[in-house]
Design goal:
Number of strands: 17
Low-confidence stretches: none
Largest sheet: 5 strands, parallel
Structural class: alpha/beta
Mean pLDDT: 94
Radius of gyration: 22 Å
Helix content: 25-40%
């Protein structure tokens, strides 16, 4: 495989005939459980019904009414744990492939140049959002629709956050993300890149100009473990993924790699390595398969590419390129040697510039998305809760509504 393969989506798209055939399997449930199981309230029960009746435009409108990142979520959402988990069809054969149907509809929307979003009124004052990741992007659309003049401040040179800089292109093509952001800008949302709190601006400055501020800075820094202080060559998973994404897969990879961790980030690293030509990729996770943190799609994709996955082992020693593990329940140890060690053991926020705000376990403490500073709100990965894109969309929508209620009462 090659950098070219890195840029090609792993999962093929539905054709119109395939999409209609898949939608025809839907039982057209009243009060559809799949819709109740979507954190972003994308309402798959309704848009699948529209596909069934060949109304692709109506399906797209349903998705966009609820989810500004519908094309992104169609590709990266762990649907098997959410909407597909609630699918009534599961009791007969297999759940409807909701993610691919949503992808088909949003691709149709883009190909036919549909214009679902209209420019906002901007008559309710100015709101600032710090961080142009999924939560910030969704919040900007919700606030814009409510009539606010929204400006997104992003520290990187381009918006998107982890969607742009971390998720591999074979899962989320840059063209898809760029189209999502273009729709948001066309609504009238202003995105100002290269602006970082603590460097080019301060919260105090923002408070003087904006009625409210929403923090959606995400978890941009990869965690490490003291156990690996003497391990080499060592790289943090998020750093590796950012490096691969920035170069569009044009990086050199070792012949063997050992990944510590079992979440989606670990699976992304493993799949990226295999696609780019690494012959031997082994992923070791402390969780056993019954409680594996990675989504089934990411796990299955990694396995299909030839990644070796060892479950139930936790590292106890690491020196140079040798790591020793012990089983979490059973007696026994395992020692592996590799050309490259990659740590995928979590991520954390960089909150040094927000010291005046109450924090909780390296996240921002909130109550109904409001921080200890009344006009300051927070959403996305930087608050307590699930760390998936679809939950970032959910919190972005809800935080925007919380800001609206706060400002309406002010």
């Amino acid at each position: 495989m090659s950098p070219h393969d890195y840029l090609d989506e792993l999962i093929p798209a539905f054709t119109p005939l395939m999409a209609i055939k898949e939608a025809s399997r839907c039982l057209l449930c009243h009060d559809a459980p799949c819709s109740q199981s979507c954190p972003a309230e994308t309402n798959p029960g309704k848009f699948i019904r529209s596909i069934y009746f060949r109304n692709f435009k109506g399906a797209a409108e349903t998705i966009r009414e609820n989810n500004a990142l519908g094309a992104v979520c169609a590709r990266v959402c762990p649907t098997e744990k959410l909407c597909q988990h609630g699918c009534s069809r599961s009791g007969i054969d297999t759940p409807i492939d909701i993610g691919r149907l949503q992808r088909f509809v949003t691709d149709f929307e883009q190909q036919t140049r549909m214009k679902i979003y209209q420019p906002g009124r901007k008559d309710k004052g100015k709101v600032a959002i710090v961080g142009a990741g999924p939560a910030g992007l969704q919040a900007s659309v919700t606030l814009c629709n409510l009539g606010y003049d929204v400006t997104l401040f992003e520290k990187e040179t381009q918006p998107g956050g982890w969607l742009r800089h971390g998720i591999p292109a074979f899962r989320l093509p840059l063209s898809v993300l760029s189209a999502e952001i273009a729709r948001i800008v066309e609504m009238g949302v202003t995105i100002r890149c290269g602006h970082e709190v603590g460097k080019t601006l301060t919260l105090a400055q923002l408070k003087t100009e904006y009625r409210a501020i929403l923090l959606t800075v995400g978890l941009s820094k990869g965690a490490t473990l003291p156990l690996f202080n003497d391990a080499y060559p060592l790289e943090i998973a998020v750093d590796f993924l950012q490096r691969a994404r920035a170069s569009e897969g044009d990086i050199s990879v070792p012949q063997s790699a050992l990944i510590i961790g079992g979440g989606d980030v670990a699976m992304d690293v493993a799949s990226t390595l295999k696609i780019l030509g690494c012959e031997s990729v082994t992923c070791v996770a402390r969780e056993e398969l019954t409680e594996f943190p990675a989504s089934e799609k990411e796990f299955a994709a990694a396995q299909a590419l030839g990644v070796s996955i060892i479950d139930g082992f936790t590292p106890i020693a690491a020196t140079g390129n040798k790591v020793t593990f012990k089983h979490v329940r059973l007696p026994g140890e395992l020692t592996l040697m590799t050309e490259q060690i990659i740590l995928a053991v979590g991520q954390q926020a960089e909150l040094e510039e927000f010291a005046g705000i109450q924090l909780q376990h390296n996240t921002v403490a909130t109550r109904d998305y409001q921080t200890s500073a009344p006009s300051l709100f927070a959403a996305g990965d930087v608050i307590q809760g699930d760390k998936t894109v679809v939950y970032a969309v959910k919190t972005g929508k809800e935080a925007a509504q919380a800001i609206h209620h706060y400002l309406e009462e002010a």
